[in-house]
Amino acid sequence: MKTLYFIGLFLLIAVAIQCCKDEPTDPCKNAKPVSADFTIYETPSGGGWEGWYDGYYTDTILHSATFKAKEDGAKYTWLIGAGVYDKQSVFLNFNGVANYESIPVTCIVEKEPNKNCFPNDDGKDTFTKNVTVAHQNPNIFGTFQAKDLDDPNKLWTFSIFDTVVGTSNYIRFDNIPVGIPRDVILNKDKFIQGYKVIVIRARVYQSGGGGRNEGFTLRYIWIGGNQFDCTYEWKIYNSKSELQSTKTYNFKATKIK
Q: Alpha carbon of 237 to those of 183, 201, 203, 210, 241: distances in Å?
């Protein structure tokens, strides 16, 4: 009797598994109607900085941004200010825009719709977002308390300031972890600034010592409120500019004033 019971149970399980296997796949499960939605991505404007700068999605930018439609393989029409553009991705610089001005960005997409899944889709969609141009973000300048993520007992204070010498913009910073003299002022070609980020890179040439020189990169990203994620990389080169050693610090920073 037990044998018949187990055979019957096995047959029921087998039938259930087969039914699940034979269940038809919904062809519209992952389908979407034509959409003109797009992303706003703050990016540098060239000058050899690509790869040094980690861009990010945002609705507030400092100077420049890339707008990219999410829909692939479509006809695109962008209306941004007085400009009209027809690529999936558009990069623009907004240096001439007033501080904290909001600009409407409209994307129009046309594409053959999936009538099987969306019989009422006409294949056209329009999406508008505003991008705010803020030529300065006061949150990313000031004095910060830093904590090394690899050595939580290591704490220090550093400062970064935006300054003007004559008619040129500079960045001054003080007490970065190692290697940099105090009160260093760098010309604007040594750093790139986004609304949420500063990336600094430079060489410091030492007098004497066989022509040794040192270089650094600081990626410094505002994550909201008074909190920042930072990566600091210090490199030692010989007189032939050959890399001798590298030290990397990953740390969290809290703005204290």
A: 22, 14, 10, 11, 5
Residue 179 has φ and ψ, to the nearest 5°, of: 80, -25
Residue 12: strand, helix, or coil: helix
Query: Could you give the residue ranges of the DSSP H alpha helices within the chain?
Result: 2-22
Contacts by 209-215, CB closer than 8 A, 24 or more apart: 210/238, 210/239, 211/238, 211/239, 212/236, 212/237, 212/238, 212/239, 213/237, 213/239, 213/241, 214/179
Separation of alpha carbons 105 and 120, rounded Å: 26
End-to-end CA distance of the chain: 82
User: How do beta strands 184-187 and 168-174 pair?
Assistant: antiparallel
pLDDT in tens, 128-140: 999 999 877 777 7
Q: Which residues of 107-136 are buried (b: 16+ CB within 10 A; e: fewer)?
A: bbbbbebbeeeeeebebebebebebbbeee
CATH of 38-133, one of 1.20.1300, 3.30.1300, 1.20.140, 2.60.40: 2.60.40
Provide the whole-model pTM: 0.67
Domain ranges of the chain: 38-133, 138-255
> Is the pLDDT assigned to residue 71 strictly greater than 70?
yes
- Could you tell me which CATH number the domain at 138-255 has? 2.40.128
pLDDT in tens, 174-191: 776 555 445 566 665 666
β-partners of residue 69 are: 38
